[in-house]
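Supplementary Methods, section 5.1.

A reviewer requested that the exact input to the structure prediction be made available. We therefore reproduce it here, unchanged from the version used in the analyses.
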Amino acid sequence: QVQLVESGGGLVQAGGSLRLSCAASGGIFNINPMGWYRQAPGKQRELVATITSDSNTNYADSVKGRFTISRDNAKNTVYLQMNSLKPEDTAVYYCNAHGQYSSGTFSLSARDYWGQGTQVTVSS
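The structure derived from this sequence is encoded cell-by-cell as follows.
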C-alpha cells in the first residue's frame, strides 16, 4: 500500500531554517503533483507549495521567497527547504502526492495520498 514518510520537522528559533523530506512508496506512480500543506491549531489545512513532475512550482503568498520546494522523481521524494522561519509558520506539515497506484494485479486511478504529518514549531 502507498506510504508517504515525512521527516525533518522540529523546533527552531525565528529566522532559522528547516528542511522537510517526504518519500512516497508502495506502488504509487505517475505522481503529479507532489506538495506540502500545513495545518495550524484551530485553522484549516492550507497549501504551502506544490511541484509538478517537470518542476513547475506553486507557492502560497505567505512563503514566497522563504521556502523552496524541489523533488527527485527517481526517488519519488519531495523536499521543502524553509528559511527565515517565522512563528506563524508553526503547524503540522503534511506531504501530498497525487498519483496512480498499481500492485501488479490491482490498480487505482489517480488520487491524493497524504503523509502522517510532521510538526514544525518556530519560537519567537
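The first strand starts at residue 3 and ends at 7. These observations are discussed further in the main text.
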